TrEMBL record:
Biological processes annotated in GO: SRP-dependent cotranslational protein targeting to membrane
Gene, per the UniProt record: ftsY
Subunit structure comment from the entry: Part of the signal recognition particle protein translocation system, which is composed of SRP and FtsY.
Domain SRP54-type proteins GTP-binding residue range list: 365-378
Name of the protein this chain belongs to: Signal recognition particle receptor FtsY
Membrane topology term: Peripheral membrane protein
């Protein structure tokens, strides 16, 4: 064979060998990359496997058999994952101190009434009558006003009180007796989850109260979920979700005009599935004169109770509405078992006397008071602090 031909054959074989080697190397590189990708994927799946259940489920709720609930789409408004900063709600302890001053204002009729008695002067008939009148303007009501005046007259006369400090002590004692210092005013959140329903006439401050209460519970390290069962007012769900977002609390909401019972049911179901501590349910404002709407409220409670017992039903009453608030209390308690009262707008009314009337009427304690529009302007109702604030204001004025 000619030397040139031999060289050509060797060259060709060499090229083929290089080509095969390159293909093999490329295949190996691809295989390695694919293996690496597969391993990364498996690792990712393994890591995410345990957290999938932490997401609130949006499955359709099981329907109770004897209560027709219209099927509605519900959505869970998770606070945005990338939400940069959450509020740090104020603890109940510090907010109590901050709000104490707001509890009693210098123009508070209750404080004014106390002032006369704190003077230590001899009290004549006219003074006692003025005292009674002032208590009535503070919404204390006829019964409690008469009761308090009688008790005080008796003690002031028998003891011949001339010392302002002694007068203060007697007043403090009698006012506390009237308000009932021993009632359990804690919010019952026991349950798996605890369910707190918030009810009341429109505009009293229900949604605001649910938002503020969520903050109180978050400050106490509770895991909270909100249910926007106020499907009556279009903006209410949005308003509630915004409250939740500020403290990282999700909101379950339905479509506009959805069946409120269905949304409430779904919220408790989602809360249960995700092991939250407390579900707070905001309900639509009721015209307490409309029987149909009030019946619907009873239904919301019954439907929720197919998932979990309702631990607390808080009736929100606007302190500025006076006697009307009392009528509301009466009617609402006929439809749902009210277990506690939230008295809002106490900052704007200073007619704290209504606390006594409402408690007497319902036989349930005022548990929370709203003292402003600020996010943390909700405080546990503490009778001792309330009475001391009244007396201090009286002394200072
Ligand atoms: N000053 C003062 N305003 C309050 C207080 N609580 C609520 N408000 C205000 O009352 C208004 C009505 O409050 P909402 O929470 O929207 O009332 P709602 O009962 O949910 O109303 P509906 O959804 O229409 O039934 C808002 O402007 C609140 O800021 C309070 O304690 N003090």
């Amino acid at each position: 064979m000619d030397l040139t031909i031999i060289l050509l054959i060797v060259l060709a074989l060499g090229l083929v060998a290089v080509g095969v080697g390159a293909v093999a190397a490329r295949r190996q590189a691809i295989a390695t990359r694919e293996r690496a990708e597969l391993e990364a994927k498996q690792a990712e799946q393994a890591a995410s496997g345990g957290t999938a259940t932490a997401e609130p489920s949006t499955e359709a709720p099981e329907r109770p058999t004897d209560e027709p609930v219209v099927e509605e789409e519900s959505v869970v408004d998770e606070p945005a994952v990338a939400a940069p900063e959450l509020d740090t709600p104020e603890t109940p302890r510090t907010r109590l101190q901050r709000l104490r001053a707001r509890l009693a204002r210098s123009d508070n009729p209750l404080s004014k009434a106390m002032l006369t008695l704190l003077s230590g002067k001899q009290l004549d008939e006219e003074t006692w009558e003025d005292f009674e009148d002032t208590l009535l303007t503070a919404d204390l009501g006829v019964g409690p006003t008469t009761q308090l005046t009688e008790r005080l007259r008796q003690r002031f006369t028998v003891d011949g009180v001339t010392d302002p400090e002694q007068a203060r002590n007697i007043l403090r004692e009698e006012l506390l007796t009237l308000i009932g210092p021993d009632s359990d005013r804690s919010i019952n959140t026991a349950g798996e989850p605890g369910v707190v329903m918030v009810v009341g006439v429109n505009g009293t401050g229900k949604t605001t109260t649910v938002g503020k209460l969520a903050r109180v519970l978050v400050a106490e390290d509770a895991d909270v979920l909100l249910g926007a069962a106020d499907t009556f007012r279009a903006a209410a769900a949005e308003q509630l979700a915004t409250w939740g977002e500020r403290v990282g609390v999700p909101t379950v909401r339905g479509e506009e005009a959805a069946d409120p019972a269905s949304v409430a049911f779904e919220a408790v179901k989602v809360g249960k599935e995700n092991g939250v501590d407390v579900v707070l349910i905001d309900t639509a404002g009721r015209l307490h004169t409309k029987t149909g709407l009030m019946d619907e409220l009873g239904k919301v409670k019954r439907v929720i109770e197919r998932q979990a017992p309702v631990s607390e039903v808080l009736l929100v009453i606007d302190a500025t509405t006076g006697q009307n608030g009392l009528t509301q209390a009466r009617i609402f308690s006929e439809v749902v078992d009210v277990t506690g009262v939230v008295l809002t707008k106490l900052d704007g009314s200073a007619k704290g006397g209504i606390i006594v009337q409402i408690q007497n009427e319902l036989g349930v304690p005022v548990k929370l008071v709203g003292l402003g529009e600020g996010a943390d302007d909700l405080a546990p109702f503490d009778p001792e602090m309330f009475v001391d604030a009244l007396l201090d204001t009286a002394k200072a004025s």
